[in-house]
Amino acid sequence: MPSAGYILASLTTILVITFALRALPFAALEPLRASPYIAFLGRYMPVGIMLILVVYTLRTVPLGSGWHGLPEALALAVTVGVHLWRRNALLSIVAGTGTYVVLVNTLLTTSL
User: Is residue 40 part of a domain?
Assistant: First the structure.
């Protein structure tokens, strides 16, 4: 059985390392708050990420015939419209996703 000193030293080491790892992000972020580069990234990176996600999602949409591509286009229009109206990303995504699900389940099942 390990001695009490060994257990105490181990627990102290664990405590110090855990505290340091949890405090490190706060210490590292403080100098970055005044950085113009970080402000630029905070402003434009979400838009860039959303654009990449939209292109990635729509890259395989078949536009050949019938209703193909219509649910995606309408859901995208609803998402953009709701976002321009309310400026709420969560509401926009939920509205666009809901529109897409409803259209896919109604248009594609009725056209078969």
Answer: no
